[in-house]
Amino acid sequence: MKFLLFLASLLLVVDSVMVVVNGKPDPSSKANQNPNATSWEKCVKYCSEEVTCLLAYDNEGKCEWFQHENITKVKQTTVLEEEKVAFKVNNFSTSSCPSGLNPPTFDNQDAHGVLLIPGEYDNPNRVNYTIKYTAGTWEFSYFEQNACPTDFFVLLQRENIQWCMSTEITPDRPFTSFSYDAAVTTCDNQNGSVLTGATNAAEMEKIKTMQSNLLSWGAVPQESFALRLDGKRTTACQATPRTASCMTDEVRKGVHED
Ligand SMILES: *[C@@H]1O[C@H](CO)[C@@H](O)[C@H](O)[C@H]1NC(C)=O
Ligand SMILES: *[C@@H]1O[C@H](CO)[C@@H](O)[C@H](O)[C@H]1NC(C)=O
Ligand SMILES: *[C@@H]1O[C@H](CO)[C@@H](O)[C@H](O)[C@H]1NC(C)=O
Ligand SMILES: *[C@@H]1O[C@H](CO)[C@@H](O)[C@H](O)[C@H]1NC(C)=O
Ligand SMILES: *[C@@H]1O[C@H](CO)[C@@H](O)[C@H](O)[C@H]1NC(C)=O
């Protein structure tokens, strides 16, 4: 029994921003409280950092925040009413500030957001939401699915791209028949995935956890297996691979192992 690691679908990560406007959650909404956020600024910051939060509300100085199951509507209020909400939405533009009436739905354009909510086995729930504005009310609609196809994948964040990584298991023996080229071809046959390694120590830990899950789930026999990970040294370390600084996890792009 042998494995190889491969990558599947990739997604661009969208930065989010908080947009503060006058508004009030519908009375049917279920608020979470954060008594630690003692100012509105802290409340907005808390929501921006809390992965499950999509709206913060200044309820007479108390910090309230909302998860996607618990809110569908926000009523627009006036400046005089002094009620404030902060919507978490995708960063609109790389170059210019948006303008128009009734932000975050500038001039009746739907606003969008994405939450990645940690799940089991490093396969988070991805909640995509749309905010529509109609006659003084913003309404949320939600679409929820796992970020990766199954729990046999883990999600890796590499710069601004997310990768779903999994292990391909084949019963080939002897292990020597399991060449690098065969591994590349096997990955390519899985919806154009690519053979990969670990780009840092945290990814190595995820790979190790995934292998022990596969063992405990009985997906591979206990007696023996081989594992192929792809990898190469960073450009800077290719010339001086044996220096101390090039022998750490931080500077290797994953190790080549059979
Ligand atoms: C929000 O919804 C989640 C999931 O349904 C639930 O666990 C949580 O208690 C709710 N929060 C409030 C404040 O009701
Ligand atoms: C508030 O602070 C306490 C103590 O630091 C902490 O245990 C608690 O989790 C915090 N609550 C929130 C909602 O951040
Ligand atoms: C929005 O995206 C642009 C381009 O990626 C970036 O320069 C800017 O800092 C982002 N804004 C925020 C608040 O993240
Ligand atoms: C969810 O949002 C992400 C980021 O904007 C996007 O790439 C993806 O296609 C969306 N998924 C669905 C099902 O709308
Ligand atoms: C390839 O992608 C299709 C469509 O997204 C999916 O139905 C199928 O299960 C994928 N195959 C593999 C091997 O991941």
From TrEMBL:
Keyword Transcription regulation applies: no
Signal peptide: 1-16
Cross-referenced InterPro entries: PAN-3_domain
Cytoplasm in keyword set: no
This protein's UniProt keywords: Signal
Domain PAN-3: residue ranges: 1-142
Cross-referenced PANTHER family: C-TYPE LECTIN DOMAIN-CONTAINING PROTEIN-RELATED, C-TYPE LECTIN-RELATED
Full protein name: CRE-CLEC-188 protein
Gene responsible for this protein: Cre-clec-188
